[in-house]
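Comment thread on ticket #2218

A.B. wrote:
> Attaching the input chain for the structure job we discussed in standup.
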Amino acid sequence: MAVMKFLLMIQIMSTVFSVRLQWEDNPDLVEESVIIQGREHIWLMVAMVGDSIDLECNVLFTSKPLGEIRWKSNGALVNQSGDPIVKTKDGVVFLEENHKIDNITEKMDGRSVTCEYEKGQYVGRIEASLNIFKLVIETSRKFCETCTGKAKFIFKESIRSSQNETNVVRRIIFKIAEMTNVESDGITVENDKYSVILPIDTVKSNQAILAMKPKFVITGNPGQVDSNEEYCKCGLLSPSLKSVDSDEPTKHGFIWIGELSCCNRLKEDT
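C.D. wrote:
> Ran it. Output below, let me know if you need it in another format.
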């Protein structure tokens, strides 16, 4: 009888304390708006170009000897340095392990990062799908003459579109408002684009915007996209940068690359 009670207790404990994986709380890690059966393990990570991502994978209710945590990026095994943090309570073991990605790029949009744990017959997996937003600054010819005024800052997912993912939309609007110091109702949403009008000086003073390495588009010049290199030299700016032709910063705080200013180039094109 005692043996039966013991086996029953073990069965109940194994049911209540079954091994499982979960992501540590992260405001940029959101659930899919509609959770489809079989995709409960997939979460969406909202980030901007230039960000750093720190994912923490938690293994709950495991035991010794410990299993193995594996990280993968798009299915390829990632080498992890260091060992997971091990916590024990009442004989039950909990594991924590972090995976950090620095300097997020546009090409990472759509990438999947998974944390897997295998112990005996148990194999668990959780996934973070990256939603990476880039920044394009839309400006005018007049800006090239003065390097002052306001411009349209457009945030857009780099490769794919998540405009139907309510949780992604809500989170990217919050992040844009936080970055630009604009109220969320001041952000215009057009399909998969999120825009705000800001003084161009915002580029010089906002390190988070500079880290995004925004591309400039001059309105009225069809086809002239990614004008950083050729058309809008006013855009490549940081107060710490200096002119390539001088040891002194330019009068507008912008760096000019090459021999022609954007204005001169535009005059040649007309």
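A.B. wrote:
> Thanks. Noting for the ticket: Residues 2-16, 222-231, 235-270 have pLDDT under 50 and may be disordered.
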